[in-house]
Write a structure and sequence with these properties.
This protein has an eight-stranded mixed sheet with strand order 1-2-4-3-5-6-7-8, sandwiched between helices. It is globular, with a radius of gyration of 17 Å. The longest helix has 26 residues, at 129-154. The chain has helices at 39-45, 71-84, 97-108, 129-154, 157-162, 165-176, 179-191, 218-227, 243-246, 248-260; strands spanning 2-7, 10-17, 24-28, 50-54, 90-95, 113-119, 205-210, 232-236. A hairpin with a 2-residue loop joins β1 and β2. The protein contains ten helices and eight strands. The protein has 263 residues and is α/β, with parallel strands linked by helices. It has a single domain, classed as 3-Layer(aba) Sandwich (Rossmann fold), CATH 3.40.50.1820.
Amino acid sequence: MSNKIHANGIDINYEFDGPTDAPVLMLSNSLASNLHMWDAQVEALASKFRVLRADTRGHGKTEVTPPPYTVQLLLDDAIALLDALQIQKVHFCGLSLGGMIGQRFGAFHGDRLHSLTLCDTTSQMRDPSIWDERVKMAKERGMAGIQSATMARWFTENFFSTGGAVIKEIQEMIEATPLVGFIGCCEAIKEMNQADILNKIQSPTLIIVGEDDQSTPLAAAQFLKENIEGSGLVVIKSAAHLANIEQHEAFNVALEAHIETIN
């Protein structure tokens, strides 16, 4: 069930699933999505874990505030949410923007982590200028106008043609994203460069990447692995940027296996 709580100055929308006495697994979503991008993980993992999902600032049903946003601000939101819910430690899993938040979480709040999973993400943007173009297109065309280009980055052509109802759900999720929140998070990603903090991450860390991810490709995942001591890397076959949806079974196996090594 969806709930709201005031934390770090905004109303954050969140959901809990799973046993109240189980370890907490916190899931952090990508740009232009909401907490329902994790539905397939909840279905698979909520029998073992207390799954916490929250909409990122400016996304879903969480409050929209005017830009600028930073990845640090989004991390502050996540930590404030945990404080408000009186949760001391979590297994954290973030994808894309959520993984950028996760890197800072691991570097600066490692004492709040049982484990860290960074999915289809990067520590630095190869070409920050592409974000200026995406913001420009969104302002001119609205979220509906950038939906098709976003979907083309997120999924392989094969999944796009065979994914059925989930494709429509994700299209609607993109189009429903508040424009101001999208722009704020685009600017946060554009300014993000976290390569120099990766060596601060001490929590048990797994990196997951879709083999066909063009947005944050295998090279970005390998860079994370090389710079986060003791981290592991799982490459998901036949998946692009939203590997957790396109190949949810393989993704869930990898995520659960990583967490189970800690518990």
